[in-house]
Design goal:
This protein is mainly β. The protein is built from one helix and five strands. It has one domain: DNA Polymerase III, Chain A, domain 2, CATH 3.10.150. The strands form two sheets. A three-stranded antiparallel sheet has the order 3-4-5, covered by helices on one side. β3 and β4 form a beta hairpin. The longest helix is centred in the middle third of the chain and has 7 residues.
């Protein structure tokens, strides 16, 4: 899985696989590509600081679902973010 970002100031890419210590589980059903607004992702990811675990789910041109587990008893919060559609 590759997370990448591009801006006027530079580019970044983070590649994760099943051997990455940062991952508990990586499930890939099919190759997917989507673009999301970094400003919204930055705001949403502030919830990750309080989360024990989190799940990211996305697909081609579909909303991103981010679920953060906040308590061991199963309390969680989910966010949905629509993909950014770029006109060509």
């Amino acid at each position: 899985m590759v997370f990448s970002g591009k801006s006027e100031t530079g580019n970044v890419a983070i590649e994760l696989d099943n051997n990455s210590p940062a991952l508990k589980l990586l499930e890939v059903k099919e190759e997917s590509k989507a673009t999301y607004n970094i400003n919204y992702l930055t705001s949403i990811n502030k919830a990750a600081k309080e989360a024990n675990d989190f799940t990211y789910e996305f697909s081609n041109k579909m909303p991103l679902r981010l679920q953060f587990q906040l308590t061991p008893q199963g309390g969680n919060v989910s966010f949905y973010l629509a993909p950014r559609i770029e006109e060509r």
